[in-house]
TrEMBL record:
UniProt subcellular location: Cell inner membrane; Cell membrane
Organism: Nitrosomonas cryotolerans ATCC 49181
Transmembrane segments: 21-48, 68-101, 121-141, 147-165, 196-213, 219-236, 248-266, 278-298
InterPro entries to which the protein is assigned, alphabetical: MetI-like, MetI-like_sf, Phosphate_PstA
Endpoints of the signal sequence: none
Keywords recorded for this protein, A-Z: Cell membrane, Membrane, Transmembrane, Transmembrane helix, Transport
PROSITE patterns referenced in this protein's UniProt entry, alphabetically: ABC_TM1
The protein, known as: Phosphate transport system permease protein PstA
Family note: Belongs to the binding-protein-dependent transport system permease family. CysTW subfamily.
Amino acid sequence: MKNAKNLKEIRKIIVHHKRWDFIFMITGIFALMIAVLTFMALFAHMLIDGLPRLSWEFFTSFPSRHPEAAGILSAWVGTTLVMLVTAISAVPLGIGAGVYLEEYAAKNLFTEIIEINVTNLAGVPSIIYGLLALGLFVYQMGFGQSILAAGLALALLILPVVIVATREAIRAIPIAIREGAYALGATKWQTVFDHLLPYSAAGILTGVIIGLARAIGETAPIITIGALTFIAFLPPSPITNEFPFLSFEWLTAPFTVMPIQMFNWVSRPEEAFQLNAAAAGLVLVVMTLAMNGLAIYLRYRMRKTIKW
């Protein structure tokens, strides 16, 4: 009799928890659909307005006072170069810092303070990074209002994201991988370089591309350091015909980026400029989705090739 009563109580508890699981699932689906439908509505509106404006001339023309002749050549070139500086600056530094904090740093109060600050920096408003870059890179280091200063500003912005993603990816590796490497006589560096980094590469890559996808749409730091709203020329080419076939003059060149160009067009009263802004926004969204899609594909390929 007592066992039957206990079984009845257990079934009641299970039914109660299943009911809450169902409610939570419905709530999660509802929240997800709101986000997805909102994005789809905005994207559809932008697609309807901007798609007719997209053409080869739109990608190969400079901005103009005449909306029908205006293009995004200087904007997408500037965006590409700024993101190149951002990736070169933030990715190696962020991965190295993440590996050090997770594998080498001593577990003490100083390390805990660093970890807390790195985590908090990921939530700092982007305008703060712009002000920091303005004082440090533009004025103190004398980089001026250049591609280099913009790339370093965005590198500071995504650095905490890369560090946290690296640490989480390394932390997810089973402890047996480390123990097996040490048992075979591997050093700390050999364990990290030959085992931990290859196994965590998919997670690290995902964090890196998500960080870059965030940086490509940032406006506040770029405006703060003085990006131009109207520019009808391109920076010097990074590739030259003379030895050593590389030029770094483009790092000190003035620039503009896609969000700034969109902001300039949206501020104009003419409807044709609004259509140009919608077309530029469509290009920017496609670039961001492509970066995230690439991260998903590479993560799938890497996880498929790695055998635990």
